[in-house]
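Worked example (supplementary).
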Amino acid sequence: MATFLQLLFTGLGIGAIYALVALGFVLLIRAASVVNFAQGQFSMVGAYLLVVGFNVLGLPYYLSMFLSVVLMAGFGVLFAGATYWPLRHRGGLPVIISTIGASIFLENIVLFLYGPSPEVLPGLFDSPGIQVGPVFMDSQYLSILVASTILVILQYLIFEKTLLGKKLQATSQDKEMASLLGIPVVAMILITFGYSAALGGLAGMLVAPVLFVSVGMGGLIALKAFAANIIGGYGSIPGAILGGLLLGVAETLGASYISVPYKDAFAFAMLLMFLMVRPQGLFGEKISEKA
Amino acid sequence: MKLLEIKDLRARYGAGEVLKGFDLSVDQGEIVALLGANGAGKSTTLRAISGLVPHVAGSITLDGKSLLGQTTEAIARLGVSHVPEGRRVFPGLTVRENVILGASNRRISGADTKREVDQKFDLFPDLRRLADVLGWTLSGGQLQMVAIARGLMANPRVLLLDEPSLGLAPLIVQQVFKVIGEIRKLGTTVLLVEQNAHMALSVADRGYVLETGNLLVQGKPDELWNDPQVRAAYLGGMAAG
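After joint prediction of all chains, the assembly is encoded as:
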């Protein structure tokens, strides 16, 4: 039982990262109908910004993190200008291809600047962790869980309790109607891109001490986050969170009890199972019901 | 005094010309009905005023200020409030939130917003008990009430109402037009697009009849009722009612 609880804790920690990246996916799907296949690379760029701030410039860790998040938000706006804006009237597919192109571009730019060797970042805390009953809570996984929880609550408060949040929701639900009401739709979409990039970047920074910082780190996270999005229900915010956590727990338990080399296979087996049994995901609607 | 003035309005979607050049004006405080069959260009006229049609020529002015070339958001901020066909109530937001967002075109304090939302609920008493209900759960008539209340929250200089009776039961249509009558008492200027000519002319000061993008005839409601061409083409059976 102690081992199970320990694995559950670790799985939730990893799942929280998938959930954060999946949230970024969902927000862009809802606000701009964009499936952003560079969402994982946002995590990679965020982690490398932290490397630059902390390892290269020698800035304090938390200041580097804060600056990296701010820069990621700005980066998200630039990303929107480069990949989404010129193609926004041409349907979903050109934008998807554009984000795939951007993801390859970003990986190669970072590869050019930093090379293939992974970079190492220290954890958020000096302490290795705390013992709670039979579970040793590793400080890094604990900080991931705490940060994710705070972000989810913050997001809930922004979206549900502020006028800005309502305008963002209105934009995501009907852009033309939002513009008829005088809501600055372009600004709302750019805010969503900026927020989504900041979220992805922060996920990369949080997971960096666990996974190392490498050019390819974003690809697998993004795939898992996308799977989390499908499992939770395409475009559903609670679904993204729950889907991410479920995926993290499933792959951790699978790796531990069945086989470590097939760790990633458990996550995608779960995705396949959902696609066969409940394709609308946990919180999604059946497409036929929308017709 | 002319508040909204349209001159030689032309609009096209792709190669097809939908509006072929006509004039229209709405005076301050007036309710003007824009009538015609399906495809006559009524909704396109409203969409052109709101900046939603990309290829528009001619002139559209609000109180002398040109609306052509302005963004939809900017036109809304100038005081044009458009209640489009299909209501377009945000399904994932509550009735109250939908109505509040109607004031997005102006700077207004939280207290004033609350007071004005209350005033809209006085105008539509059914909405008060539905205030915390999500948009997607509402009936067609309720959605129309929310859409009009939201449109009025903009404190519009001119309210564009597109097919408010479309798809509603006759009893609900009567309620909607009763509300449009109330809006008249508020002094709000309205350009009303309707296929239900009988109901539209019962509340309008003047009417225009469009036919395939051209102006067929204009005049006061009784003049339109008595125009044999219009009766035959559009008002037909309805005129007897």
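Two points are worth noting when inspecting this output. The longest helix of chain B spans residues 170-185. Confidence is low (pLDDT under 50) at residues 237-241 of chain B.
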